Structures are given as structure tokens and as C-alpha cells.
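Morning run. Coffee first, then this:
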Amino acid sequence: MSIDLSKVEADIVHRFVMSVTIPILHELGDAAALLATGTLFKIAGRSFIITARHVFDEVSDLTLLAYPENPLKGSLHTFGDMAIYKPKEEHIDVAVIELLDPATLRRLHAGWQFLELKNVGIPSKSLDDGSVFVGGYPQSLTDLKDGWTTGAFLTAYTQRIPDTPSGALEPVCEDLDMFFDYGHLAHTLTGEPITTPVLKGVSGGSIWEMVEPTSTVWSPDQNVRVIGVQSSFRHSDFIRAKNWWAVAAVLEEVDEGLAAEVHAKLNQRDRVF
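And here it is:
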């Protein structure tokens, strides 16, 4: 099933996805380096950023993690009080940041949007529907100019790979891992052909799937859903991602009630792996 969007609809979806996809930066003196990509979520009244686990492995000072008031624009702020939850198993390459600082939450609610569990799902059974895309902030498209960090938000269509690629590092968990094509060329949501950039910096970004709207009133949050968290890539070959059962596994170590809500959402359809 391929879902065709008009130019206007594609632009609206792009802006919607960008509004919930936040760059995670690390302050370095007067500058800031792009570390990863995350997605803002509100679950059971609590505020989270879902991202990749491995991006924190080499961060010596977590208090220097920062975000812009708007998508890579405006002044930078550190996250303040927060908790970072990582799974005990390293192969579950997902981390959850719980945002606890009131000032941070006010800024994020003013400049960004938060998704809810209604925006999450498991991938469709069809592998060749051409309706999947990755979103995030590649380091290669980010620059520092006059003290400001600027960058471009990438959306690129991809397609699920049915088998594990030969270059995938072990361990591969069939219940959690998904692989997607990432060649030299791709198309953005709005149809422009692009030469695909190196995806360093996109780690932790969401994998999205286009779906048929459930309402007669068209809206972008009903046209796309999050199906995974990008964890690694091999350029001109594949993107690797963890599905949202991995997020549930992390939340189980935080709060069983949170994990139960994610399980209930994902179990609305049979697991297909």
C-alpha cells in the first residue's frame, strides 16, 4: 500500500514530524555539538525524549546536554533536572530521558510538540509499501556560524529489508531489530530527490510509517505513526532500528505502569516479527 500525499499535505507532515523531533546537543564552551536526535513524548502525564542508548556512552558531563528553543533555531538551554534511563542489556539500543525541570517543560511546550502513545504502532505486515521514512538531524548538515548552531532536518523515504543484512553487527534480536534500505539516493517527503547524507547525529531519531487516516478529517498526526528508533546505519546499505517493544523494555525498569501502557498500545495488533 503506497500512500500518495499532495505537495501541501507532504509539507504539513514534514513540519509536524519536525515539531516533535528534537536535536540533542552537547555544549562545548561557546559552541554546541550535535550529539543525537530524539522524539518528544507525553506518556501517562510524564514528559520524555526517546532516543538511542549508545549516544551517552562517551558523554562525560550530562549536565551539558542542551536543546534549542525551536528546531535548531533560537538560544540553547541545558535540560536541567532530568533522569536518563538505559536498559541493562546493551543490545537494546534505546534510552529514555525523563524531563523534570519546569522551565525546560515550559520552553518545550511553547516551541515544540509532544507525541502520545496514539502516535505509536508496530510496522505493517507489508514490506514493500514504500511508505516508511526516517527523520532526524545529520551532523553533516549542521554548521556553526557566528556562534549559532544551524542545521537541516532530514526526512528520507526508505523501505523495510525482510532479512538481516550481511553487514549487521551481532547480536541481532529478531523481536526488536528492523532494517531499512539506505542507498546513495532517496526522496524527501515532499518528493525532492536527494543524495543521502551520512546519518551520524540521527541516532535516536524515529522511523515513521505512513498510514491510512482513521478520520474523514485529514490531519498529519493521523497520517503517520512512529514504528521504531534509529540505532545505527551503514551508508549506501541499511538503517538499523529498534521497534517500540524496546522502548517498553526500558520503561519496565522505570515504572511498570508506564510499560503497561506501551504494551497495551502495541498489543492492539498482533506482533509481526
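The helical segments are 7-20, 102-111, 220-223, 244-252, 256-266. Good start to the day.
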